[in-house]
Known about the structure:
The protein is of the alpha+beta class. The chain has 3 domains: 1-25 and 383-422; 36-180, FAS1 domain; 186-323, FAS1 domain. The chain has 18 helices and 14 strands. The chain has helices at residues 2-22, 29-34, 40-48, 51-57, 68-75, 81-89, 99-103, 115-118, 177-180, 191-197, 201-208, 211-220, 232-243, 247-255, 265-270, 356-362, 365-377, 385-421; strands at 61-65, 92-93, 109-113, 128-133, 139-143, 152-161, 165-170, 225-230, 258-259, 273-275, 288-293, 296-300, 305-315, 318-323. Strands 2-1-7-6-5-4-3 form a 7-stranded mixed beta sheet. Helix 12 packs parallel to helix 14 (247-255) and helix 17 runs antiparallel to helix 18. The chain is elongated. Bound molecules: 2-acetamido-2-deoxy-beta-D-glucopyranose (6 copies).
Amino acid sequence: MQRLRLANLAALAVTLLLLATATTHAHNITRILEKHPDFSTFNKYLTLTHLAPEINQRTTITVCAIDNGAMNELLSKHPSINTLKNILSLHVLLDYFGAKKLHQITNGTALAATMFQATGTAPGSMGFVNITDLRGGKVGFGAENNGGALSAFFVKSLEEIPYNISIIQISKPLPSAAAEAPTPAPSQQNLTSIMSRHGCKVFADTLSASPDAMSTFSDNVDGGLTVFCPMDDAFKAFLPKYKNLTAAGKASLLEYHATPVYESMAMLKSNNGLMNTLATDGASKFDFTVQNDGDQVTLKTKIVTAKITGTLIDEDPLAIYTIDKVLLPMELFKAPAPSPAPAPAPEPATADAPSSPKKGGKKKKQKAADAPADEETAPADSPSDAADESADDGNGAVRFNGARYVNVIFVVVALCFGFSLL
Ligand SMILES: *[C@@H]1O[C@H](CO)[C@@H](O)[C@H](O)[C@H]1NC(C)=O
Ligand SMILES: *[C@@H]1O[C@H](CO)[C@@H](O)[C@H](O)[C@H]1NC(C)=O
Ligand SMILES: *[C@@H]1O[C@H](CO)[C@@H](O)[C@H](O)[C@H]1NC(C)=O
Ligand SMILES: *[C@@H]1O[C@H](CO)[C@@H](O)[C@H](O)[C@H]1NC(C)=O
Ligand SMILES: *[C@@H]1O[C@H](CO)[C@@H](O)[C@H](O)[C@H]1NC(C)=O
Ligand SMILES: *[C@@H]1O[C@H](CO)[C@@H](O)[C@H](O)[C@H]1NC(C)=O
C-alpha cells in the first residue's frame, strides 16, 4: 500500500520535474549570438525587427548570419526597419542545414523556403533560397529570384542544435529585389486606419475629426510616438463627456493619449514613473504614471487607472497600444474633489470588503495600497466594471504564480516524503 503510494508520488514528481524543464529547452537566438561578438550587429537587428522571438518559436530552422562588416554594408543603404526585416527574414531558412548536410545536398542543389516567404510578403517563388554545392567544397547561396546568381558562400558553422536550429555564417547578404523593396515607413502609415482596424475606431474617428490633435499626432511619428488608444466600448461611453469639452479641451484630451517618444513594451515594463504627453505644455502638466505589476502595465492618472490590453504596432519609432479605459487628466476632470469622501490615504474602506481579503491575503503590500485608489476611481468612470476587473486581474495573477509555487513545493514535499519512507 505504502509502496504503491510512494511509486505514485515518485512518478508524479518526475512528471512535474520533466514538465518544469521542458519549457527551458527552447533556443534563444539572441543569447546564442551574444557568444559571437562578430555578429553583434546582426543580433541587434534581429531584436529591433522583432524577428528574434519569431525565430525562437520555430524549430528545424537555419539562420544564415552575416558578420558586422557585411551588416554595415547592408545598413549603409539606409533601409527602413521594415525593409530590413524583410531582408533578414530571407536569411532564416525553414529547414535544418548543419555544415555536414550543406556539403551533402542530394543532387547537389536544393531550394529552401524562408521566413520571408512564409510571411506572405514575398511575391511568387521569391523568398526561396537556392543552395548549391560547388567545386572545391564551396556551398553557394542565392535568392531564387536573383537570376541564378549564387553570390554568397558558406563560411562556417556557428552553432548547431540538431535538428532545432543551425546558425551558420554566410559571406555576404543575399541580394533580393523583392526583400529590398521599400516598405512604407511608419510616417506614411495611416495612424487612424491602424487603430480603426483593431478595435479603436471610435477614438480614431474622434481624432480624425479634430484637425489640431490629428496634426500633432502626425507631426510626431518620425521622431517617435507612442499612442494609447482606448477600446471602442470605453471611448463610446465617454463620448457625452467628451462632447461637453471646449475645442481646446477636446484636443488636449486626445493628445493626452500619446507621448512624443517611442516606448516599446519592454521599455514600458522596465521604466515606471511619470510620463509626459503630447498635451503637456509648461504648467499644464497633463502627465500620468506608468506602473507595472508583473506583466501588466497600467497607466494611472489622478482619476483613473487604465490597463494596456494589446499591441497594434510596435516598430521603432511608432508604437500603438490599446487600453481599457479613457485616460482622464486632472487638468480637465477635477472629479475626486466634489465627492464627499475622497480618501487618498489607503484606509480600509468598508466598500473594499468583498475583494480585499483575497488581495490582502496573498498579494504584496504595495498592491493592497493601490486597491483603494482603484475603487475610488470606479464611480467617476465606468461604475462597477473597474473595481471588478482589477479584482479579477489581481487574483488571476496571484493564482498563476501561486500554482507554480505550489508545484515546486509539492515536488519537494513528495521527494522528502519518498526518502523518509525508504
Ligand atoms: C528542440 O526543441 C524541442 C521543442 O522546443 C525541445 O523539446 C527539445 O528539447 C529541443 N532540443 C534541444 C537539443 O534543445
Ligand atoms: C533571450 O536572451 C536574451 C539575452 O540573454 C534575453 O534578454 C531575453 O530575455 C531572452 N529571451 C527569452 C524569450 O528568454
Ligand atoms: C535527384 O535527381 C534524380 C535524377 O535526376 C531525381 O529523380 C530525384 O528526384 C532528385 N532528388 C531530389 C531530392 O531532387
Ligand atoms: C540553383 O541555382 C543553380 C545555378 O543557377 C541552378 O543550376 C540550380 O538548378 C538551382 N537549383 C534549384 C533547385 O533550382
Ligand atoms: C487615413 O485613412 C482614412 C480612411 O481609412 C482616410 O480618410 C484618411 O484621409 C487617411 N489619412 C491619411 C493621413 O492618409
Ligand atoms: C455637461 O456640462 C454640463 C454643464 O457643466 C453638466 O451639467 C453636465 O452634467 C455635463 N454632461 C456630462 C455628460 O458630463
